Amino acid sequence: MYVNLQQLKKHLNIDSSFHEDDEYLCDLEQAAELAVERHIDDKLEDIIIASGRATLPPTLIQAILILTANLYANRESIAFSSHTELPYSLTYLLDLYKNYSKKFTGGKDKV
């Protein structure tokens, strides 16, 4: 996990003493990580290695938090009210790291 449970709860304004959704939040965070990797066509681990940092860049951490929060708040694939995407939100953050030189295909790069 690149984002810990405490970070998720803080982002979601969930009290740290509430533990009923802990496992679910961790599952959502892992799904968000995979979605981010697919969107940017690169592995998160490779970005850490390439940057020489110990963690992901803050923009990718924020993207994982935003996506996890969206999955937590919207548990169905149908919306009952209209929505508008905020400018410079998830897509913008992810596109900063989009790797156009290769296509990530679940563990195998296209050649």
Structural account:
This protein is mainly α and 111 residues long. The chain has a two-stranded antiparallel sheet with strand order 1-2. The model has no long low-confidence stretch (mean pLDDT 85).
Q: Tell me the radius of gyration.
A: 15 Å
Which shape, going by the Cα principal axes? globular
Number of helices: 5
Q: Kindly state the mean pLDDT as a whole number?
A: 85
Helix content: 40-55%
User: What order do the helices and strands follow?
Assistant: HHHHHEE
Strand order of the largest sheet: 1-2
Low-pLDDT segments, ≥5 res: none
Query: Which structural class best describes the helix and strand composition?
Result: mainly alpha
- Cα(first) to Cα(last) distance is 29 Å
Beta-strand content: under 5%
Count the beta strands. Answer: 2
Strand count, sense and barrel status of the largest sheet are: 2 strands, antiparallel
Task: Put the structure in a nutshell.
The chain has 111 residues and is mostly helical.
Give structural attributes:
single chain, 111 residues, globular
List the helices and strands and how they pair.
Blueprint lengths: L4 H8 L9 H19 L3 H8 L6 H16 L16 H6 L8 E2 L2 E2 L2
Antiparallel strand pairs: 1-2
Helix pairs in contact: 1-4, 2-4
